[in-house]
Amino acid sequence: VAATATTIATVERIYREHGKRMWRALFAYSHDRDIATDALAEAFAQLLHHAEHVRDPAAWAWRAAFRIAAGQLKERSRIVPATPEPAVLIEETVGDLLPLLARLSPKQRGALVLHYYVGYSVKEIAQILGSTSGAVKVRLSSGRKRLRKMLEEDHDA
Amino acid sequence: MMPDVLQRKFAQLDDVDPPDVWDDVISRQPRAVGPPLIRRSVAVVIALAVFTVGGVLVWTAFQPSAPRRPALAGTTTTTEPCGESTGRPVVTLTDEVLFDVSCVAVRANEPFLLEFRNDAAGGVQANLAIYEGSVGCEDPARCPPARDPLFRGELIAGGQTVVYDVPALAPGRYVVRDDVHPTVAAMLLVRAGAETSDSTGVRTIAEGTDPALGPWRLYVRTAESTEMWFQAGRAGTDVPLLRLPGPIRGVGLLRSADHPATVHGIVDGAVVGVDVLSNGEPYQAKLTRLPDDLLEDASFFFAVIPERQPKDLSAELTGEVIAYDASGNELDRSSFGIDPAEIG
């Protein structure tokens, strides 16, 4: 069903409110600007067509965007091994965070980014990533440990 | 590491300048694959249903080697978001190249007129074609979204209208698609007339032939369509599958490789579950509520448990759940594992 002007306006408001933060979270999760950009655009394009039947459009968009990005990451990994963006580019852009995140698993990255950057609760992260609260807690915990270890190693070096 | 340290680390992301993709959002045609629909909790319940009824019913029915019947072979649901058309149904392609309806309904076994209005801007050509959906296909992993059309209407340019004369169709659920824009599709619900439903309200929704069972059919028995039964050729295999408190929404196929049995599961507005006979005794799998977003978008689903599963629930139960939209397009595919502790 075609999106009405009201729907478009509503979705655009949500996009303006969440889009930038969502893109950055997707970028940190996927380490790929193209994936982040496409997942963001596709999620909101789909929201335009589903908005009238969605109770919480913002949450829906977050969930859709991360699942689209996860699907693309999975597809890419089947074709070539994961190749994060060049470290030098990442470092120039956002300091030391992304190179460290690149050494974590995508699931750990997703949980950490959504928790520490976006501020979602464990339950909300589980909904976005299609996982369980227990699994998210495990990934947060293990991701924190690895990050801490890597930071300590960097500091010692 | 203290959490606030991590939060400061992650705040570095605010230095990244994202692109503005709104123009892309507005102009792009969404891909067929949608957002996540199956949640782990649903997968758990579905898998439990399969697991608990494994080895119970229809031992070799629906095996992958079984002959593939016509995909829709009478498969349908009793309630769909399209009302009965009083006149000739009309489908309009909007100027955004979308159908204005998600579903049209016609009567079975009689030719009908289908009006198509192409309101797409720029003289874009389009048509309507009718395909068998994949609701009833045997292997969900290989269900094609469309096969040779049962009917293909002529192309018309934007701004034009045509009335197609469509031949009679058997009862079931079909896909109406614009061949020029194949992602633009709607459901065609061909409802059975009185001649296909007996006086007790029995209505067949799926049927086929199995090498071991002979002819089989899945049917709803009551006028309210709240009971679903399975009937096979051998005596004593006519068993109730489900008794639901509400209307049946869709049909799923639950398959277990460990127990060479397959049962149909049903999704209605609130409940999914299976109710079968086990060794001649009634056995009811636990029912649960489905998440709303699944009900909004998924018309039916399959749960597949491809590996040999433990019978004592001492190890992880694994499998896969696949959701489809009304056109047979795969919406979501989720692997799942069930920790014994979750089963409780």
SS element count, helices of chain B: 5
Strand and helix order of chain B: HHHEEEEEEEEEEEEEEEEEEHEEEH
Helix/strand/pairing class of chain A, anyone?
Answer: mainly alpha
In order across it, which strands form the biggest sheet of chain B? 18-15-14-13-19-20-21
Low-confidence stretches of chain A: 80-93
Rounded to the nearest angstrom, the radius of gyration of chain B is: 23 Å
What gap, in angstroms, lies between the N and C termini of chain B?
A: 35 Å
> Spans of chain B with pLDDT under 50 lasting ≥5 residues?
33-85, 134-146, 193-200, 222-226, 232-237, 239-321, 336-344
Number of strands of chain B: 21
Mean pLDDT metric of chain A: 81
**Amount of helix of chain A:** over 70%
Q: Which two chains form the greatest contact, residue counts included?
A: A-B, 52 and 45 residues
Walk me through what this model shows.
The complex is a heterodimer of chains A (157) and B (344). Chain A is mainly α. In chain A, helix 2 packs across helix 3, helix 6 packs across helix 8 and helix 7 crosses helix 8. Chain B is mainly β and 344 residues long. In chain B, the strands form five sheets. Chain B has a seven-stranded mixed beta sheet. A five-stranded mixed beta sheet of chain B has the order 2-8-7-4-5, with no helix packed on it. In chain B, strands 9-10-11-12 form a four-stranded antiparallel beta sheet, with no helix packed on it. The radius of gyration of chain B is 23 Å and the shape is elongated. The C terminus of chain B is likely disordered.
